[in-house]
Description:
Largest interface: A-B, 50 and 50 residues
Number of strands of chain A: 32
Helix content of chain A: 40-55%
Distance between the termini of chain A: 34 Å
Oligomer: homodimer
Amino acid sequence: MGKKYVYFFGAGKAEGTGKMKDILGGKGAGLAEMTNIGLPVPAGFTISAEVCDYYYKNNRTYPEGLMEEVEANLKRLEEVTGKKFGDPSNPLLVSVRSGAAVSMPGMMDTILNLGINDEVVEGLAKLTNNPRFAYDAYRRFIQMFGDVVLGINKNEFEAVLEEKKKERGVQWDSELTVEDLKEIVKKFKEVYKKYGYEFPQDPRKQLDMAIEAVFKSWMNERAIKYREINDIKGLLGTAVNVVEMVFGNMGEDSGTGVGFTRNPNTGEKEFYAEFLPNAQGEDVVAGIRTPMKIDELKKRLPEVYDQLIKVAELLEKHYKDVQDIEFTVERGKLFLLQTRSAKRTGYAAVRIAVDMVKEGIITEKEAILRVQPSHLDQLLHPMIDPSEKYDDKVIAKGLPASPGAATGQVVFFAKDAEKWAKEGREVILLRPETSPEDIGGMHAAKGILTARGGLTSHAAVVARGMGKPCVVGCEDLIVDEEKKIAKTKDGKFTIKEGDWLTIDGKTGYVISGKLKLVKGEISGYFAEFMKWVDKYRKLGVRANAETPEDAKKAREFGAEGIGLARTEHMFFGPEKERILYFRSMIISDTYEERVKALNKLLEYQRKDFEELFEIMEGLPVTIRLLDPPLHEFLPHEEEQMKEVAKELGVPFEKIKERNEQLKEFNPMLGFRGCRLAIVYPEIYEMQVRAIFQAACNMKKKGKDVKLEVMIPIVAEVKEFAYLKKRLGQVAKEVMDKEGIQVDYKFGTMIEVPRAALTANEIAKEAEFFSFGTNDLTQMTFAFSRDDIGKFIGSYKSLNILEDDPFKTLDVKGVGQLIKIGIEKGRSVRPDLKVGICGEHGGDPASIMFCHKVRMDYVSASPFRVPIARLAAAQAAVLDEKGELPVD
Amino acid sequence: MGKKYVYFFGAGKAEGTGKMKDILGGKGAGLAEMTNIGLPVPAGFTISAEVCDYYYKNNRTYPEGLMEEVEANLKRLEEVTGKKFGDPSNPLLVSVRSGAAVSMPGMMDTILNLGINDEVVEGLAKLTNNPRFAYDAYRRFIQMFGDVVLGINKNEFEAVLEEKKKERGVQWDSELTVEDLKEIVKKFKEVYKKYGYEFPQDPRKQLDMAIEAVFKSWMNERAIKYREINDIKGLLGTAVNVVEMVFGNMGEDSGTGVGFTRNPNTGEKEFYAEFLPNAQGEDVVAGIRTPMKIDELKKRLPEVYDQLIKVAELLEKHYKDVQDIEFTVERGKLFLLQTRSAKRTGYAAVRIAVDMVKEGIITEKEAILRVQPSHLDQLLHPMIDPSEKYDDKVIAKGLPASPGAATGQVVFFAKDAEKWAKEGREVILLRPETSPEDIGGMHAAKGILTARGGLTSHAAVVARGMGKPCVVGCEDLIVDEEKKIAKTKDGKFTIKEGDWLTIDGKTGYVISGKLKLVKGEISGYFAEFMKWVDKYRKLGVRANAETPEDAKKAREFGAEGIGLARTEHMFFGPEKERILYFRSMIISDTYEERVKALNKLLEYQRKDFEELFEIMEGLPVTIRLLDPPLHEFLPHEEEQMKEVAKELGVPFEKIKERNEQLKEFNPMLGFRGCRLAIVYPEIYEMQVRAIFQAACNMKKKGKDVKLEVMIPIVAEVKEFAYLKKRLGQVAKEVMDKEGIQVDYKFGTMIEVPRAALTANEIAKEAEFFSFGTNDLTQMTFAFSRDDIGKFIGSYKSLNILEDDPFKTLDVKGVGQLIKIGIEKGRSVRPDLKVGICGEHGGDPASIMFCHKVRMDYVSASPFRVPIARLAAAQAAVLDEKGELPVD
Lengths: 887, 887
């Protein structure tokens, strides 16, 4: 005999178990498990998802022997139920349902009441003594079979039904008589003929056709789309569940319902369910009748209600998690049709996890795995009020760059954002893309929307850093800055300055108008939960922050230091002089002029660092010296250039010329970071002077300063060694003068492939590594994070890339370089401190990898710190279990 | 006793040998070797270059015991010569000369006649019976010592001399009397005092000071500069040679000369030398007196002449190479002062190598190592006539991008270049930078000069491909296209349209005016030499070529196939429709419109490929499908956009909008190559259709076609697999229709780090790899080849990088990725064909590496094919000897 493809369940025993989701699907595994633990489940069998996999890999054919196996199981089902397929005197009816390992509600097909034909319907009528029920089931079956299996437009059937109701002058299906239904059945069969089909009278044939239809539905458009949107991948396909029908529509002692073992919105411990008497499950789904609160069942069938409560408790204890169940009552008898872990809000997830630990149902470690990192995201950001309906108001969709929703009036320039905000207005800053100059406006805005750029574009990175909702790369919009309007590509919608707009940084939706927002709350449950998280994680968690606000926020969110303070951000605010001095440094022609301008900046930088050291007292602070190319600090529009020329008191041509000189073909690969410092060492020397002066001043005040100075874009050890030597001298000079010894390290970003490849040389000089995975990903793939929008969509839909590598670390390529870097680095300096400060430092899947390669810490934007802490804890727990999901 | 630092030679025996250049320097090693083979060499000793190394590594101090060692050798020298240092009755005089392992003529210091003082001069006068000679030697020594050792401005001494001559009313030094000289010596001593010095009377003190002066001269400015310019690196420092003085100025039976054992310009076998009677070597160097042809020596001192000829023959046989010698005749006695391998022209190098094999002096393999790849470069390109003097006309210096010199009138636009060239004028195209649009103008120009861009910028790559002289990244120039002028940064020089300019693509010089050029010739010697080259090399050599002219040139130069045919170049000419159709494809909004435009292009492409297959018949042709981003094909200036809009019959706004849409932040990391093809597969499908149609047509004509289709910018195997599948279907379709089976392979460029890192996956699908080291270098370093000019100068002068990595392959980083790529690739496909098609494929040092990692072939621009063949042969020969210079 070959491979086993079909798994039977019934009469208190199942061949499958709850753990076999991969091949039985969630539904099949649930039915098997419930059968095994003695719950009332209708009998049936599950055809493995491996068949689906085979089907698509073998030109839509089945593995050999499958049909014989189905036949044998059908026999067994007949034995267990005592009914017979196609036997009018005691007919077996079945449902044929899809069910993949991951729930995809409503996306694939299901056929109910299968097994009825012209003879069986008569038998059923006699047997139930309810001809109306029998013919209603028959017409439903024909309709469903026609729609689902043969693809006949269901409106054709609806039209027949409507015509009959009109003819009979009634409003509801339930008002139709048996005779009406018989006629309808006849007409339905004619619809089949119109489409060139004959309704199959042979139940075996019905079954075979239904099974294949379910397999086919795995690849229907909406299922593919759903998997894409929800990032569901790696599944074999759908399983097919063939289950004895039970009927909730056999009268007032029958009914159907769905429920949660706890409240999935609040997490409160209460049975949270709805019930519809005398109905089949599909009636609930279709929303034709409004279900009742579960209390109604208690009144009507108290015994069934009690049994249901017990079942719920049993299931929750058994699965150690909140369950989402479906049940049917047939003539006073309870049947469970499905159980699965309940989807829940972030708030509920945390509360349930904490409560269950206290109730002794799960351990702390299990609780850690029970809350998804994205759940915490919900807790920390405002979202659109779930009661808002806005499907028809979505005008565009971009990349979801920074979670949370925001609503405000549109402005097109950063300056306007600042101005309007000062006037007390709420604004959404809409830009083609943002640059460091826009920081002020981004700060002032409630949310940021850009037409271009990817998930690690400037706008995205900065917005996440600020914890501000942001949608980027919204290529549906064509922005005309001059006219202060943006049009959708299809020309249907125009956004003007001052228009109200709502953006959802979690979905990428851009919605016209002002929607109501609600803020998720954090509470004692959160604090308690995070205590366990910190208890089990091995990775340190730091924050990327440079402003006092961000640093404070980071510490509040549990950051254990700063992993990346981007000094260039400090040149943009708050005082206007900062950028002025920096710009006058840029346009200087001589070393002396540059030093003069830099010395003016030094005061501001020192103040910045003093504040940072004070806030992060006792924790390490990694300060990255200037990174971006200089042209990013000059304006590029003629108007603005003229303004700057005026401010600096130099001719406009001077600014234009310098801009021209600094222009680069590929700025990302250009004159930046340590390269700038090697040509103009005075820039880093000023920064290091400011840093050490600040550190000395803080130490004088008795503050504990742990300083890490980081040099970016190193590709060759000699770059680092040269600068370390020069900057070390400056540091020594300051410390000698102040008579104070600062606890400091010099280290480097590893963000260029060559740095990873030559890490054994670099680590001889550098005392710590911080993987800058944004740049490292760019170089490893040769993908510009700002330009990837032009093709990443096609790549994902063609399955060429499973993830956007700027969102989730590419373990195979970039990860390989990281591994090489860490191994080579530690081969010469075993105590080398290693962290990550790219955007991936806040991405749960990437954090698993960081744990695996034994980094010391991850660093994420302040708002992602709790998420990173949780992901790090999950990595540790999974690692202990040998289940770390990274190859 | 410690390490040995001093090596003695004299009396027919030397402690050193000719192989010890590293520590004895070229001069010291030559003296030792000549002594050992019995030639007449004055005795002396060499202080090792290791002392120089120590000196600079230890704060300008000597290793312990050095002075004792010098003392001992001085004693020995006295014994061997029978003279005594400082002894007026029989004084030993010495020269103290620099000499590093690599010749740096005139860059470091030398002191002659050392050992004279007030007493010794008198003794010398008596001993030689020639007081004039003695005092002349004394005044020369004081002058030289003051200048070289103490840094006293030599004009001070010259002034004394001139004054005396004026006073005496004579023109020549030689007209001065002994009394005059005595007075001059007195006045020279006063000059010393004026500078706060006392002339040291103690010869030992003179010696110590002179030795240190020579060591110091290793780090004088001009020596540092010379090493930088000539790319001399990795040396320990200079050695110091202390050698008994012999005097060519002791009368008419004395003299001095220099010579070559063969003609270094033509390679002809003749003793090629000059001689100056009654003179010291410095007189020859100073150019005060014009030397005579060597025949004069034959007349004057026939025995010495015969001895010299024998010595020359002996030296050549001994060193197995042409020697450049210095000699002195002291009273009829010949002394050899120096021998070294002679510098020679490319033409001479080849001829000498061939002749020496025929004469049985060297083997074919040795001959291969004797010709430098750059020698061949000289043979193939025109150069500035060596008789031209133009030092004062050099107005700027850029990067030497493509060898050869060119002269012409300046134009600022490609179109003007074409127009002027049609009118029969010779033009130099001067652009800020070039783009594919400029190809026509580049072709029409004699040479290309750009203000921006690196050695692998568009201008550089294309010019090399065309074998056209080119200077790029000439940042000294500020180009104002609008006004059609270019200014030097210092404002001193303005180039206007129509001005004559000469550029030297070998040095990077930009010279005002029209200089005379000469063309190197190739001859039978070249052909014979290249036969040996091909006999020994292991690497295949192909060419990067796509035009029929280039392909023909490549085959003529010995290319064994095409390693890279860049199909995008074909869209730019010769017919105007090509670019028109391609542009209309770009601005199309629908698949149908795109296909329509592409189908028009197909005809042209097919014709291109047919030609290519015909020219390269029997040899493999690797065709790379479209690589650059689409915006490179659209104009970016408003004027030109309007023109194109008119040509295409679309509104200007359409062009502008598409330009805006296609704009990229970092085009190098953008929407190009296979990424474009995945989103718009129709582009590659057209190209593949054209390729296979062309191949079938050629096969019908009985031509042997060996096709390799190459997909660029692959970062992930799924990109390649997806396209291979789609394109394979197109290929099959064409072949099925034509009923012809083409011999073809699908392969990929490895130019993205991730491709190298995942080569084991990619090689499962790809049948060949071609390393695109231009891009791979960009990504590995995160250096934009077009922007590197802003810092590469500082990097090289600070010794952070030894070479421009775009010129010479970075073995440590990029090479590591290549090794990983080859190993991983061959681990799954042992017969994987591997080549390189970046610019490094034509760079000799990089070719050594390609040989080492066992590539199958290198591919270079046609003009570099002979160079690549030679480098490949040298790699094979060196490998056999275990001397491959790659770690």
